Amino acid sequence: MISFEFTESQIEVLRMARELAERKILPDIQKYDREHKYNPQLMKDMAEADLLGFCLPEQYGGLGMDYISLGLACEELEYADTSARVILSVHIGLYSLPVCTWANEEQKEKYLNPCTVGDKIGTFGLTEPAAGSDAVGIRTTAVKKGDVYLLNGEKMWISLANVADYFLIFAWTDQDKKKARDHSGLSAFLVEREFGGVSTGDIYGKLGVRAGSTGYISMTDTPVPAKNLVGNEGEGFKIAMFCLDQGRYTVAAGSTGLIRACRDACVKYARDRTTFQHPIAEHQLVKEMIANMEASYEYSRLLWMKAGWKKNSGEPSTRETSLAKWISCREAEKAAADAVQVHGAYGFSDEYPVERYFRNAKGSSIYEGTREIHTLLQADYALGFREDKPLRVHLPVVDQG
Ligand code: COS
Predict the structure, then answer these.
(1) Helices H, strands E: what count in the chain?
(2) Domain coordinates in residue numbering, the chain
(3) Which of 104, 125, 223, 273 has the fewest CB atoms within 10 Å of its CB?
(4) Residues labelled as active-site residues
(5) Could you tell which of 238, 239, 362 is best to mutate to test the pocket of ligand 1, judged by most ligand atoms within 8 Å of the CB?
(6) Second CATH level (architecture) for the domain 8-116
(7) How far is the CA of 241 from the centre of ligand 1 (A)?
(8) Which of the residues in the chain have pLDDT under 50?
(9) CATH architecture for segment(s) 238-383
């Protein structure tokens, strides 16, 4: 059954995220964004508000809430700033949910439970300096020596790289398959910062998400215990794609929040600002831009909710997630560009938040699958060239009550 009513627990998550955004993000976001600084306190505040593990099962320290709740929290956080939503995308979407799904019980106890309660931070390392969209183009290798794998390689554009304790890293375990670009030679590993040979750093000079932590991870002969292999050897590509299914979902919901932020900023400004002796809200071309934001918000929301509904029912949702991610990010870029336009010269300065929305919106059409990758995926689904196959593991079952 499809219902547009939220449950009490979904409303509670929405309230928690909105309150955190209003109290802990919005008051200082202009300062952190201007200074290109990540606020380490925010993660602690999110942990305290139960926002780092609410959609993980209770047996692993979470609150057992559903995936619609996750989307709602992402919408609310990105309404305030993209950098806050990115924390959920990475820590929950790309790390905790996949670890919960693919790791064994021993691994979960060590690498999931402390993350769910916010004692440790997890991130995801797939992208490299020379491989983003082309996931099998990565170069990182994992060579087995006795009971460890030695990892060598460089990961780039990794959110939370410089603050995370645990990394879900993708590397080639079969060097012949690497040469042949056969994805079944890739594997996934849980790597601790403390394992040795790991160094991380921040990337400076970003166009947007300036209050977010984005960096690199470099591994030189990093010894990773063989028991830290996640899933089976050779399942790395599938695990990476699974991670992206969850991460892209959070990006879709977050971008929807950014569209709403653009709409609300424009509604306020258009009512207040007068030109030609009328509030600009009365000018038809301004109305058109606001109407487009309204429509974009509504259909982007329906798309991420459809993907969330499929996740709740335990069905594969790669197709729906990709569509939601593509459309909401495309619309967020348009909404933010129009929001600057509605604000005129004021939109061109950081006196108003729309300039930040404009810079932040650009990244989401690049990370977690460029708009071009999603366009091609959607064409291939429609043409019957691609279909989602059942997996041997599934997202944790959630309480939808
Ligand atoms: N979950 C689990 N398994 C998946 C999957 C998913 N979402 N998507 C594909 N697979 C499986 C397939 O079932 C297939 O398994 P078999 O070989 O057993 O049949 C295998 O993985 C290979 O799938 P496929 O042939 O569809 O892979 P492609 O080479 O067509 O994938 C794209 C190409 C471009 C879709 C993929 O590389 C991609 O998404 N790239 C973008 C990566 C990205 O987003 N990078 C940004 C990282 S974060 S900044």
Answers:
(1) 14, 10
(2) 8-116, 122-234, 238-383
(3) 104
(4) 368
(5) 238
(6) Orthogonal Bundle (1.10)
(7) 5
(8) none
(9) Up-down Bundle (1.20)
Instruction: Tell me how far CA of residue 299 lies from CA of 148, 231, 331, in angstroms.
Output: 49, 36, 10
CA distance 293 to 52: 30
Distance 135 CA to ligand 1 centre (A): 8
DSSP per-residue codes, 90-159 = IIIIIIIHHHHHHS-HHHHHHHTHHHHTTSS-EEEE--BTTBSS-GGG---EEEEETTEEEEEEEEEEEE
Report residues whose beta carbon is within 6 angstroms of any ligand 1 atom. 126-127, 132-133, 135, 157, 183, 237-238, 241-242, 244-245, 318, 367-369, 373, 377, 389, 391
* Residue with token string 């006196």: 351
What the block records as the tokens of 306 is 């459809």
Measured in Å, residue 320 CA sits from the centre of ligand 1 at: 15
122-234 CATH, one of 2.120.10.80, 3.60.10.10, 2.40.110.10, 3.30.2350.10 = 2.40.110.10
Nearest to 169 by CA among 124, 121, 216: 124
- Has this prediction a pTM greater than 0.70? yes
User: Please, where are the H alpha helices in 156-235?
Assistant: 175-180
Looking at ligand 1, which residue's alpha carbon is closest to its atom 20? Answer: 238
Tokens 């709403």 correspond to 260
Helices of type H across 192-283: 236-272
Report the candidate in 185, 217, 180 with the shortest Cα–Cα distance to residue 202.
217
